[in-house]
Amino acid sequence: MSEVFPFRAVMPPSHLAAQVANPPYDVVSAAEAALLIAANSWGFLRIGRAEIEMPEGTDPYSEGVYEKAKANYDLLRRDAPLSQDAEPRFYVYSLEMDGRRQTGLVAAASVDEYDAGGIKKHELTRKDKEDDRTRHILTLRSQTGPVFLLHRDSADVETLVRKTMAETPLFDFTVGPVRHTGWRVPESATPAVVAAFRDVPCLYIADGHHRAASASRVRDRCRAENPSHTGNEEYNRFLAVIFPASHLRILPYNRLVKDLNGLTPEEFLRRVGERFEVSCTGDPAPKTPRSVHLYLPGQWYCLRWTGDVTDLSPVEALDVSLLQNHVLGPILDITDPRVNPRIDFMGGVRGTGVLQSRVDAGEAAVAFSMSPTTVEQLMAIADAGAIMPPKSTWFEPKLCDGLFVHDI
Questions:
Q1: What is the mean pLDDT of the chain?
Q2: Which of 17, 73, 198, 372 has the lowest CB atom count within 10 Å?
């Protein structure tokens, strides 16, 4: 059983939605964020990445940055690019890219359910990133970006979502290759939405592990400070957009390594050939599971895993795990890719050409082009209570921040 709650969303008006909406705070650099808001005073990155309006060299985790974020949020609320619904409602959010559409329910999810494991994780979190979002939420008293959740398909949920899509949209705009459309679910449908999700066995985090963990920490803090705590306060819930699994597409998460750990390219290929079947290829992207394409200056290679995977766990059988456990760790001495500065990661939305160009330019010694992890693999690993290697999934398109905000 999954619990979802309507909430009083803080939203921009239809005609300003495209100006307010920005990419999530954690997928753009400070320089990219600054460019996005340079000519746009309503851009929501002024709230998610407030350090871009502070003096150069400002520590992004300093108290002044969080206070600036709150001031910017209060300004947007005061000047009415953002206003709050009078009554709790559910919402629908659709993203369309390259002819493919994914549509989910915008709701408040249960922190209790997250803490109890009913909302399943597949990634570890870093304390510094949790600390950042916890302070951000507490300072603003608001969750400004959604956790991206998924569930196994439900005909009842799909029917309710499709009925809502017949209503007049709250917003409908296109930025780059992505069309964003939102609707308010009719109030009369609220009980049916709650009931439909009670038949959904569990929810899975697709993206936003740090936001969910931070919401849990915020709830603990608020509960401790509230002698009249009932469990019904808004801080007991977190902002989420919940998609059916069949709507989602995971792109590859590719790797670039800065050096060959003292090996020549010939020595490196020989070592790799002891563990994989290696052949030259003209195709930068692998077409089948358990194969990775590798680029050294001037040539792509296909690495095909020929070992038995039947005895491997769902995590060990992932292509990213085979690469980590048989190449990155033992040959290139990258034992912890989460913290090793010699490895970079690149979302598949940027294509394989950039991998090749960075190696040819000498910015990296070798590139690895991956097959994407599947949604079924993600759910199987989460069901097993296991953790994926870092940078295993890249979801595209990205949900925008600023279209739906949850005050606590």
A1: 95
A2: 198
Q: What ranges make up the beta strands (E) of 98-156?
A: 100-110, 119-120, 142-143, 147-151
Per DSSP, 222 falls in state H
Task: Take residue 234 and report the two structure tokens written for it.
Answer: 């808004």
Whole-number Cα distances in Å, 110 to 98, 148, 359, 402:
33, 14, 45, 21
Q: At what angle do helices 127-140 and 63-78 cross, to 10 degrees?
A: 40
**Residue 118 DSSP class:** S
Residues 6+ apart with CB under 8 A from 361: none
What is the residue extent of each domain of the chain?
Answer: 4-249+396-407, 253-371
pLDDT at 390: 84
Dump pLDDT digits (tens) for 370-385: 999 999 999 999 999 9
Task: Spell out a b/e string for 71-81, using b for 16 or more CB atoms within 10 Å of the CB, else e.
Answer: ebbeebbeeeb
Q: Which amino acid is at 350?
A: R
**How far apart are the C-alpha atoms of 4 and 406, rounded to whole Å?**
14
- Residue found by looking up tokens 């849990």 in the block: 216
Please work out, in degrees rounded to the nearest 5, the angle formed at the alpha carbon of residue 383 by the alpha carbons of 380 and 388.
65
Q: Note the residue count of the chain.
A: 408
CB atoms within 10 A of CB 264: 9
Q: Which helix (H) or strand (E) holds 214?
A: helix 209-225
Kindly report, residue by residue over 126-175, the tens digit of the pLDDT.
Answer: 899 999 999 999 999 999 999 999 999 999 999 999 999 999 999 999 99
**How many CB atoms neighbour CB 31 within 10 A?**
9
Strands 203-207 and 119-120: parallel
pLDDT of residue 175: 93
CATH of 253-371, one of 3.30.1760, 1.10.10, 3.30.70, 2.20.28: 3.30.1760
- Residue 72 is given by DSSP the state H
* Integer Cα distance of 51 and 136 in angstroms: 12
Distance of alpha carbon 57 from the chain centroid:
27
Triad 359, 360, 361: Cα angle to 5°? 90
